[in-house]
C-alpha cells in the first residue's frame, strides 16, 4: 500500500500552535519511525481564525507493508556495540539527570539493568537499546536530553536517531521490540512473578523503575507501538499500560482488542483523569508529588470499596502502593483510587 512518508497525526493529541498560541495544533509524524517532525510542521484546527499549515517538503510516497502478512527476516545489531556503549556516564546527560534525583547505587543498578548506553552522536546523548527476550539486539534509539530538566532537546531540531542508521547498515530490516523486554528472561530465571507495566517512552520506564522497583517496567517507544507484534512475547503475563494524558482513548481501544486475543491486559486511566496538561506522563506526576508541587492536580473520588481499602491500609500500608501503582479494579470492574 502506497502512502506518504509524512502525515498529520491521527490521534487526539494537540499541541500549541506556533501561529495563534492555542492548543489546537496537529503535528506531522514520520510513518516509518513513528516520530514527530519538527514542532513547526503541522496544521492548526482553527481554520477560520488561524489557518496555519506548514507541511514538510519532499514528502515522498512510500510503500507500507502489512507485517502481519509479510514474513520479513529481521536484522540485528552486534551486541559488542551495546557493550562498548556502557561507559562514560559522566558525559551522559540522562544519567546525570538521574543521579540528581535518585540514590547513586539505585541509578547504577538501573543503568546496568536496562543497558543504558552513551553515544558520541551528540555530546551527552543516551542510547536506549531494544533487546528481546532471547538477548538479541534489534536496534538502539539515540536521544539527547537536557541534564537539568530531563526533557528531550528539540531545538534547533528533535535530537533523535537510530543506531542501525548511524552505522549505515544497508537494507536493514528493522523489527522493533519492547524496551526492557530482555528483563523477562532474568525475571523467569529468578522465579519472580512481577507484573509488567508499560509506558510510552523509554525515559519514563527508567524513571518509574526507580520510583516503583517492585514491578517490571517496559516502554513501547512510541504511541503507535502498542500493538500485537510487540506484546506477543509477554502475552501470558499480567500487564497494565499507562498512556500519556491525551492518549487513553487510543490505547484503551487497542487494549480491548488485545483482551479479545487472550491478553491479560488493562489500561490505566490514572494519568488521563488527572488535571495535569495534555502530554504529561506517569513519571511527570510522580516527580510533581516528589517535589511537593501540584499536589491537588489529581482528582480522586472514593467509592465505598475504596473507603474500605483506606481503612485496611491502616493495618497493612503496603496495599496502598499496590493499588496506586497498578490502578487495580474491584469485584465490579471499577477502578480503585487512593487519596
UniProtKB/TrEMBL annotation:
<feature type="domain" description="DUF6371">
    <location>
        <begin position="92"/>
        <end position="245"/>
    </location>
</feature>
<dbReference type="InterPro" id="IPR045951">
    <property type="entry name" value="DUF6371"/>
</dbReference>
<dbReference type="Pfam" id="PF21957">
    <property type="entry name" value="Zn_ribbon_16"/>
</dbReference>
<protein>
    <recommendedName>
        <fullName>Toprim domain-containing protein</fullName>
    </recommendedName>
</protein>
<dbReference type="InterPro" id="IPR047731">
    <property type="entry name" value="Zinc_ribbon_put"/>
</dbReference>
<dbReference type="Pfam" id="PF19898">
    <property type="entry name" value="DUF6371"/>
</dbReference>
<feature type="domain" description="Zinc beta-ribbon finger putative">
    <location>
        <begin position="4"/>
        <end position="59"/>
    </location>
</feature>
Amino acid at each position: 500500500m502506497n502512502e506518504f512518508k509524512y502525515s498529520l497525526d491521527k490521534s487526539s493529541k494537540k499541541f500549541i500552535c506556533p501561529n495563534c498560541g492555542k492548543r489546537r495544533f496537529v503535528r506531522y509524524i514520520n510513518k516509518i519511525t513513528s516520530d514527530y517532525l519538527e514542532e513547526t510542521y503541522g496544521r492548526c484546527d482553527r481554520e477560520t481564525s488561524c489557518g496555519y499549515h506548514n507541511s514538510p517538503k519532499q514528502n515522498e510516497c512510500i510503500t507500507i507493508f502489512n507485517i502481519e502478512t509479510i514474513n520479513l527476516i529481521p536484522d540485528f545489531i552486534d551486541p559488542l556495540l551495546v557493550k562498548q556503549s556502557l561507559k562514560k556516564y559522566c558525559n551522559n546527560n540522562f544519567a546525570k539527570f538521574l543521579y540528581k534525583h535518585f540514590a547513586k547505587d539505585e541509578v547504577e543498578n538501573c543503568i546496568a539493568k536496562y543497558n543504558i548506553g552513551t553515544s558520541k552522536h551528540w555530546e551527552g546523548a543516551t542510547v536506549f537499546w531494544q533487546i528481546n527476550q532471547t538477548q538479541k539486539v534489534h536496534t538502539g534509539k539515540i536521544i539527547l536530553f537536557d541534564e537539568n530538566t530531563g526533557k528531550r532537546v528539540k531545538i534547533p531540531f528533535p535530537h533523535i536517531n537510530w543506531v542501525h542508521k548511524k552505522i549505515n547498515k544497508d537494507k536493514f530490516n528493522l523489527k522493533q521490540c519492547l524496551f526492557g523486554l530482555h528483563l523477562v528472561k532474568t525475571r523467569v530465571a529468578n522465579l519472580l512473578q512481577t507484573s509488567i507495566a508499560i509506558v510510552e517512552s523509554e525515559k519514563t520506564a527508567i524513571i518509574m523503575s526507580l520510583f516503583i522497583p517492585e514491578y517490571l517496567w517496559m516502554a513501547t517507544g512510541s504511541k503507535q507501538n502498542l500493538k500485537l507484534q510487540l506484546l506477543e512475547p509477554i502475552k501470558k503475563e499480567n500487564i497494565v499500560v499507562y498512556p500519556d494524558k491525551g492518549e487513553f482513548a487510543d490505547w484503551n481501544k487497542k487494549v480491548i482488542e488485545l483482551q479479545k486475543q487472550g491478553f491479560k491486559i488493562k489500561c490505566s486511566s490514572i494519568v488521563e483523569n488527572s488535571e495535569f496538561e495534555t502530554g504529561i506522563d506517569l513519571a511527570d506526576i510522580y516527580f510533581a508529588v516528589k517535589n511537593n508541587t501540584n499536589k491537588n492536580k489529581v482528582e480522586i473520588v472514593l467509592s465505598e470499596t475504596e473507603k474500605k481499602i483506606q481503612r485496611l491500609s491502616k493495618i497493612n500500608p503496603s496495599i496502598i502502593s499496590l493499588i496506586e501503582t497498578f490502578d487495580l479494579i474491584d469485584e465490579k470492574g471499577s477502578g480503585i483510587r487512593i487519596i
